[in-house]
């Protein structure tokens, strides 16, 4: 067979002219609701509202986090309040969708949230890499729990009530401050 140079070449796509990219703008929220539990953002961070454009100045690290929702509300929340809200959202999501696993790994929570809404459905619970210093007694309501992960927390002891969890197959509590184990 002979090589035909015309058959091997592919036509190049036509070059399109480069268009300038539009400038990014942040538009002001027009429907901010202010009530007892909703606070507006600081007036220092908002300027030029007459044009509908917001110029945002750098936020100091000490200030609380701002949670925004669909442009209707602006809520100032502390870091811990944000973590609690995310934890509760994960529990509600698990409850609504009928999930049997809850992963709160690395949420930096100090106490275990209320797990009673998930008491009958939860099989897997991961509370690793948090700041939980006492064994969470909220776990004892989870009668069908099979896998429990509590790694990397400052927990010092395991209560003997752990025996209430009859279906528990995997229990990981490595890298804690535990010196003794409960009998049984």
From TrEMBL:
Which Pfam families does this chain map to?
Answer: LRR_1, LRR_4
Swiss-Prot/TrEMBL keywords: Leucine-rich repeat, Repeat
List compositional bias (Pro residues) regions by residue number. 11-20
Q: Which residues form a coiled coil?
A: none
Region Disordered, annotated ranges: 1-20
Repeat recorded as keyword: yes
InterPro entries documented for this protein: Leu-rich_rpt, Leu-rich_rpt_4, LRR_dom_sf, LRR_domain-containing
Q: Which domain of life is it from?
A: Eukaryota
Assembly behavior: Component of the SHOC2-MRAS-PP1c (SMP) complex consisting of SHOC2, GTP-bound M-Ras/MRAS and the catalytic subunit of protein phosphatase 1 (either PPP1CA, PPP1CB or PPP1CC). SHOC2 and PP1c preferably bind M-Ras/MRAS, but they also bind K-Ras/KRAS, N-Ras/NRAS and H-Ras/HRAS; these interactions are GTP-dependent and both SHOC2 and PP1c are required to form a stable complex. Interacts with PP1c in the absence of Ras GTPases. Interacts with M-Ras/MRAS and RAF1. Interacts with ERBIN; disrupts the interaction with RAF1 and Ras, preventing the activation of the Ras signaling pathway.
Q: What does this protein do?
A: Core component of the SHOC2-MRAS-PP1c (SMP) holophosphatase complex that regulates activation of the MAPK pathway. Acts as a scaffolding protein in the SMP complex. The SMP complex specifically dephosphorylates the inhibitory phosphorylation at 'Ser-259' of RAF1 kinase, 'Ser-365' of BRAF kinase and 'Ser-214' of ARAF kinase, stimulating their kinase activities. The SMP complex enhances the dephosphorylation activity and substrate specificity of PP1c.
Name of the protein described by the UniProt record: Leucine-rich repeat protein SHOC-2
Organism equals Felis catus (Cat)
Source organism phylogeny: Eukaryota, Metazoa, Chordata, Craniata, Vertebrata
